[in-house]
Amino acid sequence: MDEGGPAPARGRRAGGGPAAEDLQIAGLTPMSSVDWPGRLVATVFCQGCPWLCPYCQNHAIIDPRIPGVVDWGRVEDLMARRHGLLDGVVFSGGEATRQPALAAAARRVRGAGYLVGLHTAGPYPRRLRELVEAGLVDWVGLDVKALPGGDYEQVAGRPGAGEKAWASLRVMAEHPEVDCEVRLTVYPDGPADGLAVAAAVRAMGMPVFALQQARGLGAPQGFRAGAVGWDDQVRALARDIGALGFESFAFRPA
Predict the structure, then answer these.
(1) Which of 49, 57, 69, 202 is most enclosed, with most CB atoms within 10 A?
(2) Residues 178, 137: contact at Cβ < 8 Å?
(3) pLDDT at 10 over 60
(4) How far apart are alpha carbons 138 and 154 in whole angstroms?
(5) The pTM is what?
(6) Domain locations in the chain?
(7) Residue 212, number of CB atoms within 10 A of its CB
(8) Which of 241, 231, 128 lies closest to 175 in space, CA to CA?
């Protein structure tokens, strides 16, 4: 993340709803080839997340009480300069769907002639549905952390997290017109149901899946990214998931 700077006073759009200028932005990457597979994008990192995942690489920006440090005007300026170079803008986090201003920001990106991507862990399924059904997103990277239930709370640190995330997954399954990559991140002390998660996602008809091995970079202090034999376990899991028949499967080792 870069292009930081003080945020201006917030605005409201006509009709009283949140404006793009209300978005709390923690950072802006002007060009990325990894945040939307196959696309060259700018990435907007939104401040704040309701969950406390132990491996979060953007742990420093999960506190929702911290104001944004990048004003929306910087995003507008970047889009004006990068026509013909960038395919789109990805809203990441933190958790972008936490913020009511996301829809207004996505409209502005669309209005500037760019595609809109979204990274989400799915804690706000109703807001995700509103974005999808309004035609405001072209691609979603959806993180699913475990099967619904107690193991989900172990990862997300919040009760009911699994039900919300899988409700968001159902939203995406109901809207195949929006490209979606479902992602599972594994780590040594985490849930051991990775293959069951992938099988359930495949049974819902989702065609694209990615297995990601957690890294220590950017994670909270004390997070354990490795263990004896862990790399071999993850590679074995990748082989098993690859045999499930997804149209596209990606393995992203640490």
Answers:
(1) 49
(2) yes
(3) no
(4) 31
(5) 0.93
(6) 20-252
(7) 18
(8) 128
Q: Alpha-carbon distance 185 to 56, whole Å? A: 10
| H helix intervals, the chain | 72-81, 102-111, 125-133, 150-156, 161-173, 194-203, 230-242
- Between these two residues, 9 and 62, which has the higher pLDDT value? 62
The rounded distance, in Å, linking the Cα atoms of 142 and 169 is 7
As a whole number of angstroms, the distance between CA 131 and CA 99 comes to 12
Distances (CA, A) of 148 to 3, 144, 185: 38, 9, 15
Distance of CA 192 to the CA centre of its chain: 22
- Cα 165 to chain centroid distance, Å, stands at 12
**Residue 3 binned pLDDT confidence (cut-offs 50, 70, 90):** very low
Asked whether residue 163 carries a pLDDT value surpassing 80, the answer given is yes
Give me the sign of the Cα torsion angle 107, 109, 113, 114. negative
Mean predicted confidence (pLDDT) in 71-82: 97
pLDDT for residue 1: 53
Residues 211 and 194: beta-carbon distance below 8 Å? yes
Domain 20-252, second-level architecture: Alpha-Beta Barrel (3.20)
